[in-house]
Design brief:
The protein is of the alpha+beta class. The protein has seven helices and 18 strands. The strands form two sheets. Strands 1, 2, 3, 4, 5, 6, 7, 8 and 18 form a nine-stranded mixed β-sheet that branches. The protein has a six-stranded mixed barrel with strand order 9-10-11-12-15-16, surrounded by four helices. Strand 5 and strand 6 form a beta hairpin. Helix 2 crosses helix 3. The longest helix has 16 residues. It is globular and about 60 Å long. The structure holds pyridoxal-5'-phosphate. Pyridoxal-5'-phosphate (PLP) binds next to strand 12 and helix 5.
Length: 358
């Protein structure tokens, strides 16, 4: 593995760490250092380094700014009560980043090297990992096309970088259901498009629907399939689960949805508990009739940010439906407790999911 050079910030440059961990919020505070490396066609990845956190200098014609060659990831580091710091299934994030990169013709990373770079950066920044319940250090790996050129083309130059920031508990006031709005007007992704890649275009495509849903008082958008606008796909930036007739159902990975690490973990756990599980398309007609008959017991979203987000209310075609009386359901609670328990080292890690980094 190539050696990572380290240029440390001088202590006078160190940022003040936030005092109130309960008010950390998300994505506003960044640590003192970042990891970077460069790619050039014909040479491969080179110059891996840790440097003081700093703004990037890009040519205004850099291809990422025009044609969107960019991929990213999102994962967290958790501080256990013994002080040690762990990641949750981080290899899956870098494997997904490579699949995303391939889809937008960007170079792949050596997964083991990316994990080592992440480990070294977190180890240097370990004092930034908060310890209050539910808090963590968010990790954002990113890859962008940097060649200056205005013709639509593949960049011959890229940078990969990792930044870190402490983030607060997703549910500082306790585990709470969210209200979601089913978008029939906008779609996020179609088969054959970019939906399964974690790339910026998908997030740009989601903003207007999310704004309109917020204006109507809803927290998240439930996306439908692009063709029939009938089948559930994802909710906000999470995967979606339905607990119907004692069966746990989630839409299949057929190219339009992001293959979530949390989604995979929920499926793993449910199967290990010998629950009935199906990865299949589920139409809104089936969802609504399940809510009306009471056979649809729970709906929840799953993703790194919140782990599990129970859905309390669903708005579809001008009507609103309560899910499980607007309360957190027992399955959502059990999955939340179990996954959080594993992440924070409170319960045994039955599948070897946690990787110690400091
Ligand atoms: C569109 C989308 N779907 C699903 C997820 C959930 O994925 P994960 O569980 O890996 O965080 C995310 C978050 O990364 C996302 O952005």
């Amino acid at each position: 593995m190539p050696e990572i050079t380290v240029r440390k910030a001088s202590p006078v440059e160190f940022k003040k760490k936030p005092a109130a961990e309960a008010q950390l919020g998300f994505g506003k505070i960044f640590t003192d250092h970042m990891f970077l490396m460069d790619y050039e066609k014909g040479e491969g990845w080179k110059n891996p380094r840790i440097e003081p956190y700093h703004p990037l200098s890009l040519d205004p014609a850099a291809l990422v700014l025009h044609y969107g060659q960019e991929v990213f990831e999102g994962l967290k580091a958790y501080r256990w009560s013994n002080g040690q710091i762990y990641l949750f299934r981080p290899r899956m994030n870098y494997e997904r980043m490579n699949r995303s990169a391939k889809r937008v013709c960007m170079p792949e990373l050596d997964v083991e090297f990316a994990l080592e770079a992440t480990r070294q950066l977190i180890s240097l920044e370990k004092d930034w990992v908060p310890s209050a319940p539910g808090t963590s250090l968010y990790i954002r790996p990113n890859m962008i096309a940097t060649e200056a050129a205005l013709g639509v083309q593949l960049s011959k130059k890229y940078i990969f970088y990792i930044i870190l920031g402490p983030v607060g508990a997703y549910y500082p006031q306790g585990f709470n259901p969210v209200d979601i709005y089913v978008s029939e007007k906008y779609i996020r992704a179609a088969r054959g498009g970019l939906g399964e890649a974690k790339t910026l275009a998908n997030y740009a495509a989601s903003l207007l629907a999310a704004e309109e849903a917020h204006d109507l008082g809803y927290t998240q958008v439930l996306w439908l399939d692009a063709i029939e606008r009938k089948y559930a796909e994802e909710v906000g930036t999470s995967n979606i689960f339905f607990f119907l007739n004692n069966e746990l159902i989630t839409p299949p990975l057929h190219g339009t949805i992001l293959p979530g690490v949390t989604r995979d973990s929920v499926l793993h756990l449910a199967r290990s508990w010998e629950m009935k599980v199906a990865e299949r398309m589920i139409g809104l007609d089936e969802v609504i009739s399940g809510l009306e008959s009471g056979k649809l017991q729970e709906i929840f979203a799953a993703g790194t940010a919140a782990v599990i987000s129970p859905v309390g209310k669903l708005a579809y075609q001008g009507k609103t439906y309560l899910v499980n009386g607007g309360k957190v359901g027992p399955l959502a609670q059990k999955l939340y407790d179990f996954i959080m328990g594993i992440q924070y080292g409170k319960i045994k890690d039955p599948f070897g999911w946690m990787m110690r980094v400091a």
